[in-house]
């Protein structure tokens, strides 16, 4: 079984968000996929099997299978469109979040993703303790989105992982309006064994949606301010969905020699 390591939301290796992409003929057991995800110890390992129409795609963190992952979808599209179907500019994945289509447009890979309703909830002392800074607003959708007053607060925060475990949301996202980009964010996911996600595509289904409303813009240039950093180009669609685009860089191609069943 071939495995590719791809850095997503960047065109420079060793930045952006790394994902492992495994292309297989048949599905191994969930236990085997979970073990390989733990062995890789990346925020996501993607597993792909070709079907009659498109590809079936699943995502695993070192702790669990997840319903949606942006950067590993981008990485998977990069692998398929460069090494398996180089004549194509589009690929469809069947996933737990439905059919996801990715289109190659020059050096960008554009993903068609769903959006999620965000409900404003009270800011709590637990949130302030977990992030180390008190949010000015909190919203809950698929994940928790905490809005902060300044970009500097988001960039410099040192969250308490134990505190994050106690508050709602699979991912806990910190975001603020940016100076050189529309918004700056960071994503923390200790509940799925990812202390900080370097660049989280799925979180921007909510983050970009929020800032689109706040700024009155349909196109949002987002930057995730992790140590690795990465850029996301987001566009709200009339259909209520969102197009999230980014670049990708290949780091490694390897062969998994351990028995995967």
């Amino acid at each position: 079984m071939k495995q590719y390591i791809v850095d997503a939301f960047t065109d420079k290796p060793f930045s952006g968000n790394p994902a492992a992409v495994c292309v297989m003929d048949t599905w191994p057991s969930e236990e085997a996929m979970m073990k390989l995800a733990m062995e890789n110890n990346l925020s996501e390992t993607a597993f792909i099997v070709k079907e009659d129409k498109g590809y079936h795609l699943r995502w695993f963190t070192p702790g669990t299978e997840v319903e949606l992952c942006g950067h590993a979808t981008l990485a998977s599209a990069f692998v398929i469109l460069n090494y398996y179907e180089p004549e194509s500019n589009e690929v469809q994945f069947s996933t737990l979040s439905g059919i996801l289509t990715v289109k190659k447009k020059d050096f960008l890979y554009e993903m068609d993703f769903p959006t999620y309703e965000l409900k404003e909830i009270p800011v709590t002392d637990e949130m302030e303790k977990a992030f180390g800074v008190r949010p000015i607003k909190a919203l809950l959708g698929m994940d928790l989105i905490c809005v902060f007053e300044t970009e500097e607060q988001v960039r410099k925060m040192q969250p308490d992982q134990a505190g994050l475990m106690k508050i709602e949301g699979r991912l806990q996202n910190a975001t603020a309006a940016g100076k050189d980009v529309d918004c700056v964010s960071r994503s923390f996911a200790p509940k799925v064994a990812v202390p900080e996600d370097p660049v989280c595509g799925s979180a921007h289904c909510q983050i970009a949606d929020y800032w689109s409303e706040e700024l009155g813009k349909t196109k949002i240039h987002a930057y995730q301010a992790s140590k690795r950093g990465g850029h996301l180009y987001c566009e709200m669609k009339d259909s209520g969905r969102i197009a999230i685009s980014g670049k990708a860089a290949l780091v490694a191609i390897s062969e998994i020699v351990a028995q995967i069943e």
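The two ends are 11 Å apart (CA to CA). The longest strand covers residues 17-24.
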